[in-house]
Structures are given as C-alpha cells and as structure tokens.
Design a protein that fits this description.
Elements (H helix, E strand, L loop, with lengths): L1 H32 L4 H13 L3 H10 L1 H14 L117 E7 L4 E9 L6 E9 L5 H6 L1 E7 L7 H21 L10 H13 L13 E7 L7 E2 L8 E12 L6 E19 L5 E6 L9 E6 L3 E10 L3 H4 L7
Antiparallel strand pairs: 1-2, 2-3, 3-4, 5-6, 5-11, 7-8, 7-11, 8-9, 9-10
Helix pairs in contact: 1-3, 6-7
Protein name: BBC1/AIM3 cysteine proteinase-fold domain-containing protein
Organism: Geotrichum candidum (Oospora lactis)
Amino acid sequence: MFEQQQASASAIAAQLNQINLSATDSNRSIEKTSTGGGSIRDKIKALNSTQPNFASQIAGQFNHAESHHNEEQHNVDAFPKPFKKAAPPPPAKKKPAVPPPVASRPVSSPVPAPAASPAAVPAETPKGTPPPINFSTRPKGYELPTTPPVESTPSQIAAPAPEPPKPGQKEFDLQLHTLWFAQPTIQLPPTLAGLNYTYSIVKSNAECALTLAIRISEDLSIVKYRITWPGNVSGPALAAAAKQKRKELPPPPTLTQAQLIQAYEQFGNGVAAFGESVIGQQVGDGECWTLAKEAIDQSSHGFAMSPVGYTHGALVYHAVGGASAPIAYNDSIRRGDILQFTSGKFETRDPVTGAVRATSNVGNPNHTSIVTNVSPNNRIVDIVHQNVSGSRKVQPGQHNLDEFVAGDVKIFRPVWKEWAGELDTTF
C-alpha cells in the first residue's frame, strides 16, 4: 500500500513540474512580446511568489522516513473502527390466538367408554412407624356373657371338638370264667360293682352277644365291652369259647367359663333351693351323696346330668389341702354347686398367735354337700348336707377354704346331660 501511495505522489509532482515549466515559458513569451517590459514582469514575479511549489512539498513529504510513518499512522487512525451492534430487544410476547367459536354439532362416531379410574394409591406411611391396622379385618374377641339366658339349652352351646381317646384308660377284669354273662339274670362281677353302667343282650342258637357300657366316674369317659359266645355251647367249654372286644370313648370336652355360667343360671338356684327345702329331713337313704343326686335330678326334671360316682357335673374348682394355689379354678364358686371332699381336714387358727383353736374332718373318706351361699371373696361357703355327726337329716354348715389344710376337694357345676353323652350300648 505504501508503494502505491509513493508512486501516486511522484506522478502528481511530475504534473506540477510540467505546470511550472509551462508557466515559465509563458512568462518568457510575455517578456518578448511585451511592450511595457518591467511592469508585466513584476506582475508575473508577484504572481509566482504567491503560487505554492506543490512539487517540492509533495516530494519532501514522501521522501522523508518520519513523514511516511506519520502518514501511515494517520491513515490507520482515520480508518473507521468496526461498529459493535447492540443486542436486539426481546421480541414481544404474542397472545395465543383464540380460535373462533365452533358451533356444536352431533357426532356420528360412537363415544368411547371412559377410561378406568386408576387404583387409589395408599398414603405413604412415615418411616419408622408401622402401617395403620385395618380394623375391619381384625377378628373380634369372645366376651363372656354376664347375664346368659336362663332358657338356653345345650344345643345352643358350641362345644369344643371331642378329644382323642386317652391311653392307659381304666382296665376292668370281666372275670369271664364265672360265666356271669350267660346266666338268665345278669349280675355283674364284683370288679364292676358300683359303676354307672348299662347293657343289652342278644341270643340265638348260632351266636349270643352282650354289650356292656361303663362310665368312668373320675373323668366321665366311657368304656364299652362286647362279649360273644356260641349259643349251642355250655359248661366249661363256654369260658374258652367266649371272646371280648373293648372300645373307648374320650371324656366330654372342657366347658368354657361362659358355658359354666350359663349352666349355673339354668340349674344352680334350683339345686340349692331343693337342699334348703329339706333341712331337718332325711332324703333317700340318708347318705350325703343321695342328697346331691336327688337335688339335681328333681330340680332339673331330668335335664341335668345325674351324678356318676362322685362326679356331679363339670369341674369348677380343685384344690389340695395346704397347697398355695388350686389345681383348677375354671369359674367362681356359685350357689347350687356340689362340694366333694376326700379325707378333708380344716384347722381354725388364732389370728394373733396362729395357734390352732379348732379342727374338723370332712369325709371318711368321702363327703358330699350343696353350696347355698358364697362370700364376696369366694372363700367362705355356706352349705347343706346330711349324714353328719351321726345324723342322717339335712342340716346347714359352713366351710372356710383358707382353713383347708389336708385332703382333696373338688367343686362341680350341674350341667346338661347331653354334655357327657348318653350311656348306650351301640358298638
């Protein structure tokens, strides 16, 4: 670029020199032709003095190094700087175009069925705490009735499932060698005397069969025997020909406290009232056991289970004298319950010194009585009984169970006869 500017300046200087030469020639020609001589020459000199010498000025500028640098810097400074555009303003927000209203018209295509609503998502349970319990699925607990209906019957009570037969059930010696089973009048051997039993017999020339059912008084389980023998055999050969089979039925199911209360409501007051009504009288043979049996049978009109041996119903309470706690305590002792003592002994002590002030024995070895009243703490019981102190007449009495120091006592609740099951000869 610098070389181009230098060449241009040289061309301009050459043109100016040509102009100066032309002017000099003109002056000369004027001098030759001028008649006035001096005045015209003076004018020309004056004119030349006022004319700048462009050739010398331009040549001096381009031939000097500093002048070249200054000129180049001047051209750079004079060059226009690039223009920095400012950021354009943001475009104005456009309002969404509102579509023109469309006139409603019936749709010819079928309307699809609404989508199924999503399943409800349970609320998140805070961490560290268990999820809420759904009480609607929670099983309800059984509440004992405080006033069960008096008119209820055993069929309305849901009894537990029967228990399987217990091993080691009581064994009996049938003494078949005595041939008691083949006699015209059946008389059980001494080993079976005093038991609650029933029997049936079928005879024919081909075969005879006797079925005997015995209820065990201790737990009310049932043992059945079936004895068979040839009908045409007699004498000593009959004992060898006779055969026996044994079948066991488990004890009745244990009653719940609610069922025991229900039995009390139905039978308790009647049993106690019967005992109170015969005070001063002898009932039956005068035995203590007879009073309890007659009170249960007559007051219940045959709906309650009749006593079997020394078992008078469902067990409510069982304790051994001198023990710190009872063996069984299934319900509170109530009016109409039956007490059964075995070699019982009571001691009354002085509350201050602890010395024994009185002693009484109950049962030689067994004694039965009827409860007529119970103290609030369920420890002192009023009773009626007979065959006491040499008298067979019914008389009142009282026992303090806290003073029971020896022997065994069981308290039974009269219950429905269906509970223990009928004693029959089906085999």
